[in-house]
Amino acid sequence: MYRFLLSRQWVILTLIALVLIPVMIELGFWQFHRHERRVAQNQLIEDNLKAAPVPVTELTSPGHTVPRGDYWRRVTATGTFDTGHEVVVRRRTNADDRIGVLVLTPLVLRDGRVVLVNRGWVPAAADQKSFPEVPPAPGGEVTVTGRLKADETTGASGIKDLSGLPPRQVMLINSEQQAESIGRDVLGGYLEQTAPAPAGDTPELIPEPDHDSIGAHMAYAVQWWLFAAGVPVGWVVLVRREKRDREEAARTPGADGGEGDGDGGSAGGSGGGSRGGDEREPAAHLPA
Length: 288
Known about the structure:
membrane; Surf1/Shy1; disordered C terminus; cell membrane; five-stranded mixed barrel; alpha/beta; transmembrane helix
């Protein structure tokens, strides 16, 4: 009855179904774990943004790698901006997805150490080799409040660190690279400025990170699991349909053949009887 399942076509179809089920289940868990990470990150951002600001030197030091638990922590730093070592970070977007640069200015603390401050976004120069117009940093001693971020690397950001760039232009915000250029001890990571607000609203301050949206990862996970459940159901439906079609095909030719044989037999019998009668009649009139 189900011997057709041993055919090459059905063996291949069954093997494909057996492979798809665990693959789809795994894809569902992959999306589910992405959902969990997004929820955890949103909670981390919310908690760190609500926390009272602390001096940046309490959370980082020269050569220190900022742990993920301290990302977006509100910190303060008091010092004097060193505009002579100011650089711009190429190919960055603002809140409206316009491409420009970030203004990265060292802030020299009272103890002589330096923390990098991302003062915000400005449009890039028309000529990419030229240094863009950057509003001057405040003079004198200033207290900056911002969000602590980790050093950028190619591995973490996906941004290629190009060489041979024009002077005072970089691709990544990295404290170790800037320490070599500045010649001072630079605190690990950098500060993303939120206050004071710049005069004339430029540079544009970096907006607060999104920590409300959870994306569609959970919906994708459920979809993959439904697909996985649908594979065996679809396989059973196809098997039953194939069995039904084969049974109907087996019945139809047998029924036609039987009716054809019966008709032929009747026609042959009638014809034979008529011919037999015709042959005997002339024989009766032959002379003795």
